[in-house]
Amino acid sequence: SLGLTVFAIILIRILWRFMNTPPELLDTYKKWEKTFATFIHRVLYVVLIALPLSGIIMSIYSKYGIKWFGMPFIKGLDNNAMRELYKEAHEVIGIILLVLIAIHVLGALKHKFIDKDNTMKRMSF
After folding, report:
1. pLDDT tens-digit profile of 74-86?
2. Distance CA 93, CA 90 (A)
3. pTM of the full predicted structure?
4. Residue-wise DSSP of 57-102
5. Distance (Å, rounded) from C-alpha 17 to C-alpha 69?
6. Cβ(100)–Cβ(43) under 8 Å?
7. What backbone phi and psi angles, to 5 degrees, belong to 37?
8. What average pLDDT is seen over the chain?
């Protein structure tokens, strides 16, 4: 239930992102910073889709399938080998997401306390 809900929220967020242009990167960023920031953001979006999707597929391959808050959603296929494969993928993708979040937070802290630029201000209203 939670995975399906998170997946729907992520899809809405990605749709919103395509409909709204993000703020431009500051001119004070070095070329490598702009490249790295763009890369990390793109990989974050890919991982944010891959994590719940792997969980959904893992659940489909279980014998129980997927229920959304108690309501049957997708019937289970009862294939333990495939379920285990997607379980491993789900765990690895989760670790990758945690690493990307850490990199993202460290980058924000760098801009706030070392560079002392307006990165945080440009993201707020």
Report:
1. 999 999 999 999 9
2. 5
3. 0.88
4. HHHHTSSS-EEETTEEEE-----HHHHHHHHHHHHHHHHHHHHHHH
5. 28
6. yes
7. -60, -45
8. 94
